[in-house]
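Human: Here is a favour to ask of a fellow structure person. Comparing notes only helps if you start from a blank page. I am asking you to supply a protein in sequence and structure-token form. Write it directly below this note and I will take it from there.

Assistant:
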Amino acid sequence: MRLGIDLDNTIIDYRKVFESVARELGFCEAEVNRSKNELRDSIRELEDGELKWQQLQAQVYGPRLGQAKVMEGFAEFLKQSLACGHDIYILSHKTQYAAQDKDRSCDLREAAIGWLKHQGMVSTCYQSIPAEHILFFDDRSHKIADITRLRCDIFVDDLPEIFEDPNFPDWTISVLIGLPESEGEALGVKSFPDWKGISKHMCETYPVDFWVSRLSHSQNLSNPRFLTKEGGLNSRGCKVIDSEGNSYYFKKYRDDHRNRRENESETLQLLGGFGFKNVPSLVSSDELSNASVFTWIEGRDLLPDEVNEGHIEAFVDFFQKLQKSPVTENWDHDAHASEACFSLKQLVSNLNERHKRLTEVSINDEMDQSFADWVDEKLTSLKQDLVHNALEAYQAQDFYSTDLLPQSKRILSPSDFGFHNCLVIENDKLCFLDFEYFGWDDPVKTLIDFLLHPHEKMRISETLKAHFNSEFRKRCVDDSGFDFRFEVFFPLYALKWVYIQSNIFLRKGESKEDRLTQFQKIQSFVQKHMSARSASI
């Protein structure tokens, strides 16, 4: 990939230098922490303001350039981009001498190259930008012509005028730095307040292979080969084999308000440190790419009709060992499992939020309309009835919906735990995967989720579900109020699964056939779990 980057106020941060020199020259009186443009506008309002502004520029871009800083986040961005093998070009609209430098005493271009070399960004080293990739232009038109000639895939600049020019190439992605994303939308370009935002955007946009290369380089995995690519709703991944034949699993997380990568990394480091052998081993985790590398686990999926009591026991064993391990003493009490609810009020609030999103589904065809009608006519009244029944049950016991489950009654849980997130390895043992949602949870939720999970790999027999129910209560629960909460919360968590399965109607691009199939599954789920309780539960 070829990346083109502007220099002034994009790579070089002049903000402090402009204000400092302006005070020395008497163009402003006090430090007011203004942006360059704000300072420029205030100086131009002075007598001979334009001349004073040119004098200030001549000093900052020339003799005082050494005082300028690197834009925050750029050094890391450059390091990782070069490590991935991208071509980096710096294209700057910068005259050789300042207009006020009549004696031509300071070559501005040489000063800029000297600054870049001093920062370690330009050299013959493969981890630096080649000197021949630093290009200067007397005017904007020639700069745009070179962006076109080089066929830059992306160009980053702090001035929107460069992207508004009719000659700016259509194929080059325009990225504006220094403005929030919302302002960029109005200009029709991608915009970010800083390099961290640009890096995050690139992480979300680029293919898995790009980030495999990046992490492989950081781990010295030479010549990685990509195999068995796969992708789910929450992550993408592939098997990676290095030149020495070592196998790894690369996992690229999708971004949302939860830091899945960090949570899973911390969990697996802790579990591994306390002797858990039936979980993946973390090799590396990287914030910029929002990805992790794990040792490869040779195993296979477990089909529902293969599940036996031994497999059920393995799940309960894992939970029991987890609650008795030092992990419970080392895990932050405020680090909860994803969407953990420790009171009736919290659970109802969660349901209300999910319900509200479904009432705002965009209507694009008759399938969307049918679903929206069902939500309005059936699901709304069902939610109201279930919440009313739960509140009445609490009142009958003189409980409050705001009563929080004490820390002593909570358990550590992977949250999304089942046969869809495990592999069968040698000797029919299980290895447990996916700890993105790990944290403290209500054991009632843990049990109900296992019993109700709609994933096809969780369609085990009612007898085996009953066995898990019995063993989990016996070995992992120490709570006199568990049975009451289970009875009250069961239909509410069932309703939550209805909402989760309905997310297909919130995503763009889902086919009409897939939406119809999912709608039928949702209605069957409601009929089975919310009209009458399974006899084995």
Remarks:
- Confidence is low (pLDDT under 50) at residues 226-234, 532-537.
- The CA atoms of residues 196 and 212 lie 20 Å apart.
- The radius of gyration is 30 Å.
- DSSP finds 19 helices and 17 strands in the chain.
